[in-house]
Amino acid sequence: MTWAEQTLDALLDRAGATEAEVAPRWPLFADPETGDWTTTARGSWTGGFWAGLLGLRAALGADPAGRAAASGRTAALAPWIEADTAARGMIFWYGTAFTETELRQSAAEALLAAYDPALGVVPWGAAFGGPRELARVDSLPGLVPLLGGAGAPGLRAMRGHLDRHLDLLTRGGLPVPAWRVAPDGGWVPHPEPPAGWSRTVPWLTLALADGDRFAPGRAHETLSRLSAPRRDGPPDTSATAIHAVGLLKLAATHENARLRDQAARMLRGLVTDHVRDGRLLDGCYDLHRGLATRHELVWGDFFLALGLAMLTGAIDPFTC
Asked: I need a surface site. Which of 152, 172, 212, 290 has the fewest CB within 10 A?
């Protein structure tokens, strides 16, 4: 068994143990020393990653109880269909990837209905507080493939949403991850997440990799224009895992061995330096607030497992 297969097994075993421990609550982040989880009642914006991780575990295993747990978690995401947030893209794209459900289609329809053609985006929304009319880079993952696969109207909305974000993110060297609508109708930087956010380029890479299937040729040009984020604090392993998955998708689309090798090195580095007992440590939930800055994060585990499953050939890179 290879290092990637061994680590993937350990991550999925950890997921099964966590589900038994915390259900019906949803894991969010875990203490790096004790492994104890901080949980939420409804899953927050990360619920799709937990449903997706359990779905991956079920897809690669033969445990009926595991399949039932994954299906149950996916079904429990249903109330988020009506939530006012573009994060429904990531919740429902990843949360439905391995489970038979109609929720994915319903989510795509809800996002299409929320698209504002005057702004050119699906607004970030008010579900988590703060200004509603924001363009945030973390609205891209999941939303791009959901809308892109929703027929001609969905494809137009996806292109508009992605174009607006690319315009904003490439204004200058260091990309600003969040912008708000000004009174004159223009866009001005918003302070949260701050410029230099660790997940800005990874989220964008992932979205561009998915978008390349609908609007080819934009990923390389855009990514070459962006500066890598500056990090003055602790590392964020979750950002590295997200970035590696995006590169693996780009490598598959363009049959690019160099990108695949780069992603493999990133994943191997995470496994060697930051994985302990099936837990990806040193993820940073919110550096600005000093919240969970060296922790196991549910989306970090998910994207590391996803990347390893892609790297080993256990799943197709565009399964989700």
From this structure: 152
Beta strands in the chain (DSSP E): 26-30, 37-40, 134-136, 178-181, 187-189, 275-276, 279-280, 296-297
Pick the closest to residue 4 from 298, 269, 253 (CA basis): 269
Domain boundaries, the chain: 1-76+231-320, 79-195
Collect all residues with Cβ–Cβ distance below 8 Å to 188 and sequence separation of at least 6: 179, 180, 182
Give the pLDDT score at 172.
75
Residues in the chain: 320
Q: DSSP per residue over 215-245, as a string?
A: STT-HHHHHHTSPPPP--SS--HHHHHHHHH
pLDDT tens digits for 93-141?
A: 999 999 878 999 999 999 999 999 999 999 999 999 999 999 999 999 9
HEC letters along the chain:
CCHHHHHHHHHHHHHHHHHHHHCCCEEEEECCCCCCEEEECCCHHHHHHHHHHHHHHHHHCCCHHHHHHHHHHHHCCHHHHHCCCCCHHHHHHHHCCCCCCCHHHHHHHHHHHHCECCCCECCCCCCCCCCCCEEEHHHCCCHHHHHHCCHHHHHHHHHHHHHHHHHHHCCCCCCCCEEEECCCCCEEECCCCCCCCCCHHHHHHHHHHHHCCCCCCCHHHHHHCCCCCCCCCCCCHHHHHHHHHHHHHHHHHHCCHHHHHHHHHHHHHHHHHHEECCEECCECCECCCCECCCEEEHHHHHHHHHHHHHHCCCCCCCCC
